[in-house]
Predict the structure.
Amino acid sequence: METQKTTEKLSALFKLAMGDIGAALEKPAQTYFGGSANLLDDNEITDLSLELRYLISGLIGAADPFSRSSPEFRALESFFTNLARKVLTRGGKVDDIVRYTQNLQETLIRALEQDSGIEFTRSRSVLHYFSNIFIELILAVFRAYLDQKDETIRTQESELRETSTPITEIWDGVLTLPIIGTLDSSRTMILMESLLNRISIEHTKVVVMDLTGVNSIDSQVSHHLIQMVRAVQLMGSDAILTGIRPEIARALTSLNIDLGDIVTRGSLSDGLKAAFKMLGIQVSPATAH
């Protein structure tokens, strides 16, 4: 009951001191996001503080100012989530967003004290109310930070997959896939998915897969590799394996992997010659004039 009365008084006070409180709320934003930080310009800071002032006023004056599921609290939480995303995207640090949020709480209480002449810092109910609100807002900031971090990791993984599968159209109807590094089951499946998509899009007739850069191969990967070759054939394309080094050849032999009907060549250049031959393309040195 005491806290309920406190919020009612705060709501009334907030409405009377809206202008002064709005000006006070700009200071923490300038400290952490403006000036040398250069994360938000003056207009953005003014708009941010204005929106924040109305959101806090709306929460305090809500039918249930203590509910974390109320539309007013959700709106305030969403504000901090979006602010965190914007600042982080522009190169800001999560530490500064948290410090801004903490400073905001102190600034808000001081602004209310100044306008009312009441020492809210001595009121347990006021401190408890604002503390609960801002703890939740700090958690919203951290959730936004973790979400962006996860998104960054996913983007980096996607870029890494693309750069680790350099599928190139070397000629009209001819794709090359140089496989470099350790070939495990997970990477083999990614290679297969990327390759089959390219075959479908570009109507590829011949795929040359070069294994020169493969360090090692196990039984499961060997079977995935053969499955990839079979999948290429099912797509209506011919597959050529090149660069099978002695240790890889021994491994495939010891694993009883049947390469009987698969075209193999010692080097990528020989594989390309075989691909051109399949397509009836003759490549010859240019005649010097």
Observations:
- The radius of gyration is 32 Å.
- The longest strand covers residues 206-214.
- The mean pLDDT is 82.
